[in-house]
Amino acid sequence: MRIRIARLLLPTLLLPTLLLLTVSTAAVAGPSGTSESAAAVSPEFVTVTLHDIADDPAQLDDSGISSDRLVSFFEWLAGNGWQAISLDDIERARSGGKPLPEKAILITVDDGYSSLYNRIYPLALSYRTPIVAALTGSWLDTPEGTPVQYGNRTLPRSHFISWEQAREMQDSGLVEFASHSYDLHHEVQGNPQGNRLPAAVTRQYIPGTGYESEAAYQARLYRDLQRSREQLQRQLGKAPRAIAWPFGRYNQTALHQAAELGYRHSLTLDPEPSRLSAMDPDALYAINRYLPTDNPSLGEWVTAMQYRDPRPNAQRLVTINPRDFDSQSPELTNQKLGAAIDSLVALGATGVVIDATVPDPSGGLAAAWFPTPQLPLQRDLLSRLAAQLKARAGVQVLLRLPHRAALRTLGSEQQVVELFRDLSRQIPADGLIVEDAPALNVQAPVDDLPPWQVRAMRDNWDTAHWPKADALALQAFQVAETERPGLQLIWLAPPQHSLLQPSSLADTTLVPASLHAPLPLPAGVDHFPADGGDTSRRTGVWWGESSPPDSKSLTAAVRTFQQRGGTIFGWSPQDLIEDRPPAKEIAPAVSARTFPSPEALAQ
After folding, report:
1. Pairing status of strand 148-150 against strand 153-155
2. I want to staple 491 with a disulfide (CB 3.0 to 4.6 A). Which of 4, 444, 506, 535 is the partner?
3. Phi and psi (nearest 5°) for 498?
4. Distant-in-sequence, close-in-space partners of 190: CB < 8 Å, separation ≥ 6
5. Which of 602, 591, 155, 107 is nearest to 343 (CA)?
6. For residue 69, what pLDDT band results from cuts at 50, 70 and 90?
7. Residues 293-315, mean pLDDT to the nearest whole number
8. Structure confidence by residue, pLDDT tens digits, 522-557
């Protein structure tokens, strides 16, 4: 994820230049999936972030690492030519000074556990490894003997380092401290129903008052980040130059506040390499980080750091309409939502498509399922649905807001843009469905485009010659992405678009089809090519029917698609509340959790 202040004001690149860059950066694989020739254009380095370290794995949560595996990792780095770098090294290389080594790695540590001092720091001394450690101010300001509220857990103050230990580590010259906020590492109420969402990106809902105003939200962020800087300056004699966002959550507003206060680096949890590319000079420089989870083995850790397989192996999408959950009775809404969550889990779905607005008979929009000045509010329900589905069903939330219908209703492109901004501010979404935008049919000369290159192309694409409605679709998506960095663009292509032609500007391309019609493949081709790069994991089929499909037809269509090499599909409608078609009947074919083997498909 590229972080910048004036995101939509960046100059666009000419198509030939962009395509040349795309080709060059995919030429010869280096240590992080790029080439030595590409390094001259956009040098890359890898960043790892650690949390708690313990000798006994049973004492760790899902982001902890056992001591033996951490030692193995440090030893592997030393034995395989990797060189640990510091923020000074990055700044020198970025400004044209000494370049980074070919195998460069930045090691960071979040939260300030006591294991930073008694497990990680000794290794840093032994291997002479620089470390960037991010501290949450309110936890360190907690008096000894007073418990620390750490998310949903209460931990003793002794579980975190002391200021004396921090000063000792800083004096070694190997440890630099960053901000992890003063008190944003928690959740706040995000809607009337009481869902708790990350404080740094949520306009909190205050019962009896309503949603926090934009001005109040900005002031809250500014005060917190300022307090963190002042605390670290007072305790350590040095203000932090980097901010590590709590939970990895941030948005354009948060970046503005941090930049105004003098932060120069933004540590994300976006799992991709970082690039020393030219950027807006006023922007925070993004350092993307890999977070090892579930105490991975050394082999799993090393493989993940290379970012060579960044896409999911399978995607399974179904739809819901908020009107099916709308009720004057919160109990009835929750009962229906619980049934839908049970169905999603049983289906093994990976994502759910939710309509964000209510259509009117004239082809416009009658109302919205989220608060916005642009449309009447049907009910403030979308945030509740999204938060519960993500947390309890473990699915990605993909929102559908038709831009042409919005323009027909609002009459102003700027109002449409603001509608999408409000949507993304309010709803914790993972992606947007973009439809009726044929100009998105763009193919680069390179098949294997990792997600960060897709985003780079999308951000720099010149839409001056596109139809206005298509250009508006991309602009509205980009505005939404400023509120939800990492937001995916899912393009619903026109009917009969080839399954072998993913849009180079979309993260995923879905091709409409009928369950009872042949797959939209080119004449004479009946299979995704084995050497087709990421095509089968960037393009899928969308079966849209007038009523829930019968189990037999859906299962047969799915198995045929999988036999052809497909991995992405979705269908609509699926009655999740009444469980039609029944999950137990179709899950063996559709579930991403029980993805059938080639042997099973052949039976």
Report:
1. antiparallel
2. 506
3. -70, 135
4. 196, 197, 202, 203, 204, 205, 383, 387, 428
5. 591
6. very high
7. 90
8. 878 888 887 656 889 999 999 998 899 999 999 999
Minimum mean pLDDT range among 53-67, 358-372, 577-591: 53-67
Give the gyration radius of the chain's Cα atoms: 25
Distance CA 386, CA 397 (A): 6
Tokens (6 digits) for 455: 């985003």
- Sort strands 274-275 and 44-50 into parallel, antiparallel or unpaired: antiparallel
Q: Which amino acid is at 101?
A: P
Q: Tokens for 517?
A: 């019609």
Higher pLDDT, 57 or 164: 164
- Token pair recorded at residue 556: 């047969």
- Which amino acid is it at 182? Y
**Strand, helix or coil for residue 183:** coil
pLDDT tens for 267-285 read 999 989 998 864 555 568 8
Residue 105 predicted with pLDDT over 50: yes
Give 549's contacts (C-beta < 8 A, 6+ positions apart). Answer: 515, 543, 571, 581
Alpha carbon distance 583, 501 (integer Å): 31
Q: Measuring CA to CA, which residue among 434, 334, 441 is closest to residue 389?
A: 334
CA nearest neighbour of 191 among 479, 388, 328: 388
Say if CB 534 and CB 280 are below 8 A apart.
no
Q: How many helices (H) and strands (E) does the chain have?
A: 20, 27
pLDDT at 34 over 80: no
DSSP annotation of 242: E
DSSP secondary structure letters along 262-314: T--EEE----S-EE-----TTSPEEE--B---S---HHHHHHHHTTS--S-S-
Cβ atoms within 10 Å, residue 192: 17
**Angle value at C-alpha 482, between 478 and 485, nearest 5 degrees:** 100
Residue in the block written with tokens 């795309």: 22
Alpha carbon distance 69, 50 (integer Å):
12
- 326, amino acid identity: D
CA-CA distance, 354 to 332, in Å (whole number)? 19
Q: Is the peptide bond preceding residue 495 cis, with omega within 30 degrees of 0?
A: no
| 392-442 confidence digits (pLDDT tens) | 999 999 999 999 999 999 999 999 999 999 999 999 999 999 999 999 999
Give the pLDDT confidence score for residue 358 in this predicted structure.
98
Question: Which has the closest alpha carbon to 425: 469, 473, 468, 368?
Answer: 368
At 13, list the tokens: 């690149």
Task: For 470-521, write each residue's pLDDT tens digit.
Answer: 999 999 999 999 999 999 999 999 998 999 999 999 999 999 999 989 898 8
Is residue 176 within 8 A of residue 131, CB to CB? The reply is yes
Contact residues for 261 (Cβ-Cβ < 8 A; gap 6+): 222, 225, 226, 229
Burial 467-492 (b: 16+ CB within 10 A, else e): eebbbbbbbbbbbbbbbbbbbbbbbb
pLDDT at 285: 87
Rounded to 5 degrees, φ, ψ at 13 are: -100, 150
Are 386 and 429 within 8 A, CB to CB? Answer: yes
The pLDDT of residue 532: 59
